[in-house]
Design a protein that fits this description.
By secondary structure, the chain is an alpha/beta fold. It is built from 27 helices and 19 strands. The radius of gyration is 28 Å and the shape is globular. The two termini are about 50 Å apart.
Length: about 650
């Protein structure tokens, strides 16, 4: 279905075209831009509510600033759909997040207007400050740098580290705080309460204005020096210490809060701020999902709803005649409650992903034992470590790619101290449409090299339940990693009895001949499907489910190496330093010379697409395994009368 943009939007193929629109027609342009986002996302999918909330802000920024010479840095890039449409990608916007199409996030290689790649949160101020310092060093006095941070990103420590530096940097940069009170789930913490206080009772800002208006009337230069006037102002502000502004305490000039949906006010304010040098922050109040009533009402649900009927609001879901397997995240969310009902030491912790991780179920049923700490992965890990020192069993649930942000804490605060924190790594492997910023490629490699770590992966829902059960037993005294993919498992009847698994013990799933497949985690299902096909050709691979990559099941590996001259390892992690590498290290240590092929995520950045498309591209899906087995067994295959025999 062709989607036709409105008449004003049709004229805009670059910010220069936007500047030709009369200012009194900008509200009409914003209506058309918002409608175009609704039209495209409803049919083609993608993130939704965040970009609707910044339509006016996006328009005002490109209207006032001279992009791309002026540098615009987005935070949590799913806010940037309007930005992409304005900057020459409108006609390709239907390919957003599709295989070989536009990225769902700003991406340097995609457009000169995308100044910095952003998928995770809270990076914009640091990046923008780096750009501003570079501009100052190079003497580019006319170049402006703007960071737009929002959707909960200001809660992360990195944002405060950057503001702490920016305040004393003497650089010309503007931070725009897009305050909508929500990330994917509602924002939490003291900062959220502080911003709410500023929003509903802007006493400080009115008082500041009153102070400076009064000082402007004083006879400065005659009887009162500028220095005395400044001290008077500071003293007066000190009288209202309860209203002191956090951002100005960090030496950032604070402006706002202002209505982020008033395009005229935004344009006027941004023009004024362009004339003011130094580091400054503009506090903008927006509504996530603005302009689509259902998204405004339920912002979490409409963060990325998938396909939907834009008229009725009905979210289009596939229907099936038979029961379907649950999502791994829901198995986690229901199982942790089951375990916590029997073990009062169990807690759940997540950094701003209660819905995505399904910890929300525990937060609803056991609110005193499940914590959302905001977009603060480092804090989540060390908080869990602190709780573990007091005998609690904490399931710290973090997306695999987000776990990278807390690597030092995993080493320093957990592994070195042998604290039995349970890391549940959701979204391990190739996550699909979100692309390289969110793929969980590296956790096997980066955890496998840390002493004292147990690193595991379930092949199905039952295995996930059993690993979760095993991790909280008193006999488990080390940090325990359980990684599992995004999406559905394979067991419609998944509520199996809980069983303890022996740590470091795999299992033989199938006896075979000549060649064996060693799988780790969910891709074991691809291997099982491949074997069923290969058996029809008379090829009989053996199959082992490793379960643990640290510690390895050495008895199982000895058996496989002795009985099968050819081995294939299959994993949904990077082939560099992953499961295949662990098997090769074992073989080298024990003098085995088997022929080995490693299937997994290659040593390159894998772009976005559906998980099936990307698994096929990387060659570790069912067809990739079949092709590898046949290639390795080709000298044993004989073609006779159109059939294959061994």
């Amino acid at each position: 279905m062709a989607i036709t943009p409105g008449p004003l939007l049709q004229q805009v193929n670059a910010p220069a075209d936007l500047k030709k629109i009369p200012e009194d027609q900008l509200h009409e342009f914003c209506d058309e831009l918002r409608q175009y986002i609704i039209d495209v996302v409803s049919i083609h999918g993608g993130h939704f509510a965040a970009s609707l909330g910044v339509v006016e802000l996006t328009t005002a920024l490109h209207y006032v600033y001279n992009t791309p010479n002026d540098l615009l840095v987005w935070d949590v890039g799913h806010q940037a759909y309007g930005h992409k449409i304005i900057t020459g990608r409108r006609d390709r916007f239907e390919t957003n997040r599709k295989y070989n199409g536009l990225s769902g996030f700003p991406k340097i290689s995609e457009s000169e207007y995308d100044t910095f790649g952003v998928g995770h949160s809270s990076t914009s101020i640091s990046a923008a400050l780096g750009m501003a310092i570079a501009a100052k060093y190079k003497g580019e006095q006319e170049r402006k740098v703007v960071a737009v941070i929002g959707d909960g990103s200001m809660t992360a420590g990195m944002a405060f580290e950057a503001m702490n530096h920016a305040g004393v940097s003497n650089t010309d940069m503007l931070i725009i705080l897009n305050d909508n009170g929500i990330g994917i789930d509602p924002n939490v913490g003291a900062l959220k309460e502080y911003l709410t206080d500023i929003t509903v009772s802007p006493k400080y800002n009115k008082f500041k204005d009153d102070v400076w208006n009064a000082l402007n009337k004083l006879p400065v230069g005659k009887r009162i020096s500028k220095s005395i006037a400044h001290k008077m102002a500071e003293g007066l502000k000190g009288m209202l210490n309860s209203n002191a502004n956090l951002f100005e305490a960090l030496k950032l000039r604070y402006f706002g809060p202002i209505d982020g949906h008033n395009i005229t006010k935004l344009v006027d304010t941004l023009r004024d701020l362009k004339q003011i040098g130094g580091p400054k922050i503009l506090h903008v109040i927006t509504t996530k999902g603005k302009g689509y009533a259902l998204a405004e009402k339920d912002q979490t649900k409409w963060h990325a709803p998938g396909l939907f009927d834009k008229v009725t609001g009905e979210i289009i879901k596939k229907t099936f005649a038979t029961p379907q397997p649950p999502k791994y995240q829901d198995v986690f969310g229901k199982t942790i409650i089951e375990l916590a009902e029997k073990n009062d030491k169990i807690f759940g912790v997540t950094p701003a992903m209660p819905s995505g991780s399904s910890l929300k179920y525990m937060m609803e049923q056991m609110p005193d034992r499940a914590l959302d700490v905001g977009i603060c992965e480092q804090h989540a890990v060390t908080l869990s470590a602190g709780m573990a020192t007091q005998g609690l069993r904490v399931y710290c649930n973090i997306y695999s790619s987000f776990m990278q942000r807390a690597y030092d804490q995993a080493v320093h605060d957990v592994a070195i101290q042998k604290l039995p924190v349970i890391f549940c790594l959701d979204r391990a492997g190739l996550v699909g449409d979100d692309g390289p910023t969110h793929h969980g490629c590296y956790d096997i490699a980066y955890f496998r090299c840390i002493p004292n770590m147990i690193v595991s992966a379930p092949m199905n829902e039952s295995e996930l339940r059993n690993l979760m059960y095993t991790a909280q037993l008193p006999s488990t005294t080390l940090p325990f990693v359980i990684r599992y993919p995004r999406g559905e498992g394979v067991m419609p009847e998944w509520r199996t009895p809980l069983e303890e698994l022996q740590v470091g013990k795999g299992r033989k799933l199938k006896e075979g001949k000549d060649i064996a497949i060693l799988s780790f985690g969910h891709p074991g299902n691809f291997a099982a499907a491949a074997i069923r096909t290969l058996q029809q050709d008379g090829i009989m691979p053996g199959h082992y489910d490793l379960r643990f990559v640290k510690p390895l099941d050495e008895a199982l590996l000895h058996e496989a190496c002795r009985n099968y001259p050819k081995l294939i390892t299959v994993e949904d992690g990077t082939v560099i330093g992953g499961v295949g590498a662990a098997v090769l290290e074992f073989m080298a240590q024990h003098g085995y010379k088997n022929e080995v092929r490693i299937l997994g995520i290659p040593d390159r950045i894998v772009e976005h697409g559906t998980p099936k498309e990307l698994q096929r591209e990387c060659g570790y899906d069912t067809e990739g395994i079949i092709a590898t087995v046949r290639e390795m067994m080709k000298e044993k295959l004989v073609v006779t009368s159109g059939s294959i025999s061994v």
